[in-house]
Amino acid sequence: MASNVNPTVRRRRLGMELRRLREQKGMTAEEVAERLLVSQSKISRLENGRRSISQRDVRDLCGVYEVEDRRIVDSLMQMAKDSRQQGWWHAFGDIPYSVYIGLETDAASLRVYEPQVVPGLLQTRSYAQAVITGALPEVPASEIEKRVNVRTRRQDRINDAEKPLRLWAVIDEGALRRVVGSRELMVAQLEALIEQSHLPHVTVQVLPFEMGAHTGISGHYAILEFPDATDSSVVYIEGVTSDLYLEKPNDVQRYTVMYEHLRAQALGVEQSRRFMARIAKDHAESEPPALPGFVRD
């Protein structure tokens, strides 16, 4: 989807502009909510781009902020209209992480640390299906298939010939050794990962066990940056029931420094390829584990 009509990014830009107008007026979110007879949480959600915003909302807020320049009002109204369009992911129905997909679709670069599984943008279809099935054992097969389709559709950003996503992935050794699906599937996934690491816009580094404690020890996170300078970077932390989006400069800076430490501790690019090849060889040569109570002949 073209970035100029990405509804998620439109909402973020509109929210940032509305926050700027409020602060320029010297008003708090509570004061604005009181004037409009709405909840303070609604104003906060509109400003952080987590809620769709109507043209009526924009009109009312511009009235409170006493915006007299009609061109500014019209521009904000158009952004509100664009923000209510549907992105490609809406065709798949209700997707719990649709906000993240919208951001990823418009991002220029993505830095991700993944301790448990291969990053979604670099997963083979078979691996993705095995991961999602294992993570959601009570979800029907039709829902699993939908999520797999969404994941593979997201990978278009990596394969985009004109504007590919710049991806830097640091992957923990545990994610590569964990047998997802089968050892044969893992061999295919690691071979695909090595091949993708040769793309000019994809960098893959492995963080081996021997590095011990590190700045990513608390878990997965991703840092998204955007081509438009007005769009602030976002740190994304995935949760079981809800996700966390950090946009404050201090928070983004802290995670950026953490990521630089991770990159420094991880193996170099060529070392990582050799390391992944050795793990693939280990998977290929390993015998299936004995099941409980099962005695081999």
TrEMBL record:
Q: What is this protein called?
A: Helix-turn-helix transcriptional regulator
Q: Which InterPro entries does the record cross-reference, listed alphabetically? A: Cro/C1-type_HTH (IPR001387), DUF5753 (IPR043917), Lambda_DNA-bd_dom_sf (IPR010982)
**Start and end of every HTH cro/C1-type domain?**
18-72
